[in-house]
């Protein structure tokens, strides 16, 4: 394992979840909802970053409140009331999406919040200046942001004696992650909800050695917080057909609903279309660098995940990517959700910009094997072939585009010889998608195999041909 970290997960208890709540499922009859999902608000457009820069850069400081010990003391947050501002003794965040260069002018990346940006933004990155010490400073710190859907802390220093460790947990202790010494620092796994508690746990030290080493301590330099919750989303089937837009698919298009949105919660397919429901278990929500979103999925039986190149390109980016499996609603049309199974991305095995794919592994593969896998189709689909697309649009719990049951509605192949970044590279279709859907599998109803890797929004939308990817990735799968 590349991370010196242990994970402690408590029993599934009721959690107030938001846009980033999820699900953990093995056998269906063992599932119990653990909270309620609420849609995150629309994200304001952010200025694009240089295309050569992948990673996080502050997009403007939103104050610089200092973290204090628990119980919290006065912070230097502004006097102006702000529902999204942290309570005293806490902090916030602001990100910068990665960009992809030289996009064709008539193509728009699905997971872009602004033109030329590569990933869908879901939260903010906030600078912090907090030290949990051995001799001085608190050994327990609360980071609370009312309404946040998740809280994720970044350690710039983890200097501890052997046997000492740090935990990051929710207030009830039902979600908890353990970290040991690491001189390089790291992101902690996100904690679902609006509060994370960081605590230092010291080994019994009868000789007082730890007390003599004042240089030891835990430093936290930034926090990512998920967008603030709002009342539950409206039924997407009520969206007006006026949204229909026949502009070409391509990078930079945030919303790609072609007419009335007919996508529904994945669980709605459980009885009417069990094959589609089962296949949806293999997809995952990707939380990249704390504040950005894409979709990924297991390809083949080995430890292999695939998403778009414009979502992540390197092992360094994969290391800072959370992979959430079975992030699904518990009931069709409801808002109860399950606790997610979260693992870290690990090594990037192959990536290509023209065909917009990245193949990578995860750390903790044994915990996600139960969710199954998908297979790339080695044959190009036919025009009119019916499709369905399991996805995490705008970071929502898993949804599937393509009508339930035997009819796929308008979710079908429009052009099997579509031009993406290269001539003849794509398949186009009118399946409903949205920002955050980049990297989703486009699956044939006839074969239940993946015929395209979704990446461009527009009407029609398009994805890289599955048969081309199957040939390029054969040695890895």
UniProtKB/TrEMBL annotation:
One Pfam family in the UniProt entry: Trypsin_2
Keywords for this protein: Hydrolase, Protease, Signal
Positions with biased composition (Low complexity): 65-82, 92-103
Molecular function per GO: peptidase activity
GO terms of biological process kind: proteolysis
Region of interest: Disordered: 46-108, 223-260
Membrane-spanning segments: none
Species this chain originates from: Actinoplanes sandaracinus
Composition bias, Basic and acidic residues: 223-256
Name of this chain's protein: Serine protease
Residues in the signal sequence: 1-23
